[in-house]
Amino acid sequence: MKVSKFGGSSLADGHQLQCVFDIIKADDTRKVIVVSAPGKRFKDDTKVTDLLLTYAKATIEDTDATDIIETIKDRYHAIGNHFDLPAYELADIDEQIDHLARKHYRSFDYLFAAFAAHGEYLNAQLIAKVFTHLGVPARFVDPKEIGLRVDDNARSATFDTKSYNTIAELDLSTSERLIVPGFFGYTENGDIATFSRGGSDITGAIMARGLSADLYENFTDVSAIYAVNPSIIENPAAIKQMTYDEMRELSYAGFAVFHDEAIIPAIQGGIRINIKNTNDPEAPGTFIVPPTEVQQTRPVTGIANSNRFSALYLHRYLLNKEVGFTLRILEILKKHNISYEHMPSGIDDLTIIFDKTLLTQEQVDGMLEDIAATIKPDTLKWLPSYGIIMVVGEGMRNRIGALTDIVTPLKEHGISLQMVNQGASEISIMLGIQPDLAERAVKAIYDNIFKMV
Ligand code: ASP
Fold first, then answer.
1. Coil, strand or helix at 146
2. N or C: which end of the chain has fewer CB within 10 A?
């Protein structure tokens, strides 16, 4: 049995859904289908999830939401009409969209979460209706029905692993395909809470593990995961297979094809993942598998970069001798409810790297003020934008010269680095870099390493 997940671009309109239908129909073992909300149909289009967030904001601010509601309904209608779905089936979806604004929510965060989750919630219902209408019986499965429980973090929830037991009870013996909305679960109080953005991948992985699937297929809009972002290098090498850990590090550092948290249920359950293209389903795609299954052909599997970071640089003499110093800094972070990503240090220096998408200006100001007042550093600098490049490959374990292959091309191109972190992970080297130099650096490193093979 396979769990097949389809992303937003694969479900953006009726034409795309027809491709999805053909893929499902062609293989009876594609039993559980996890779906995203309808995504972008063209470059400047808006995802239904973002339309719903605008609707949520209008509801909170009590401003006129008529236009946005119509736009959301139109997206679902366009899909339904493509398949001549009877009008009453769509009326039911319209009603749920209207009803969203009338419900009571525990907080604004839960309100945003519930609105956003309806992108998937309604799409899964619609897809079950369309498939049944086209002659492949399908049933909508609410995550509530299978006890998909998450914690109270309304918009960036963590999955409760106890739910695997209830998910495992899902009856797979009927002839129906089971359509599960991605991206959200229910808290203990019964509220909807979503994973972070792109989180339908997580639901797919949870379902695959809970049901001990033979394969987790993740359908998207590319025929493989590439060794580097194709907008930086034309026709980069496609990755045929990689390990779970490689994927986790690459997706963390910018490979948007697969959510970095989605790898964890797959690792725990030993579930193989296959990233495939909805518009080219015969292409083998990329397999993400346990390390024992991978034959290493390259020293480096992929190079990712992301500029979504900020950094704090702190210098004070004799830092190395001070007991409890890091603890005091961490207490300040805790006070302001800030989590950090990395903390490389020297004798008298410390850099703390943050994911800036998780920070507010108020938090940053409060933290800097407290650090200046209590730690009294000789130098304290805030770098609002900080780039990270991650060079990843199982082939780098114990490989002599891995760093030379990275640093030599940078030297040749006159590109300087702000930080190098090797050793924390055996399969990656992390580089800190000025964001405007990151793409040039990635290109130089890629050209050097990939021309060696
Ligand atoms: N629809 C959600 C988002 O846009 C989740 C997903 O597509 O995976 O982030």
1. coil
2. C
Q: What H or E segment, with its residue span, contains residue 429?
A: strand 428-433
pLDDT in tens, 1-19: 999 999 999 999 999 999 9
Identity of the amino acid at 252: Y
Cβ 203 under 6 angstroms from ligand 1 = no
Atom of ligand 1 nearest to the CA of 37: 1
pTM of the model: 0.90
- Specify whether domain 302-450 bears CATH 3.10.20.30: no
The topology under which CATH files domain 2-221 is Carbamate kinase (3.40.1160)
For residue 381, pLDDT over 80 is answered with yes
Ligand 1 and 181: CB distance under 6 A: no
CA of 317 to the centre of ligand 1 (A): 47
298 lines ligand 1 (CB under 6 A): no
Q: What's the gap between Cα 102 and its chain centre?
A: 30
- Ligand 1 nearest-atom number relative to CA 200: 8
285 C-beta closer than 6 A to ligand 1: no
Place of tokens 């694969």: 10
Helices and strands counted in the chain (H then E) = 13, 17
Our answer on whether the CB atom of 8 is closer than 6 Å to any ligand 1 atom is: yes
Q: Is 49 in the pocket of ligand 1 (CB under 6 A)?
A: yes
**Cα–Cα distance for residue pair 60/112, rounded to 1 Å:** 9
**Rounded Cα gap, residues 384 and 403, in angstroms:** 27
Residue type, 366: G
Tell me if 240 sits within 8 A of 224, measured CB to CB. yes
* Helices 108-133, 66-82: crossing angle, 10 deg rounding: 20
Which atom of ligand 1 is least distant from the CA of 259?
8
- What residue spans in the chain does CATH classification 3.40.1160.10 cover? 2-221
Distance CA 34, CA 183 (A): 9
Domain with CATH 3.30.2130.10 in the chain: 302-450
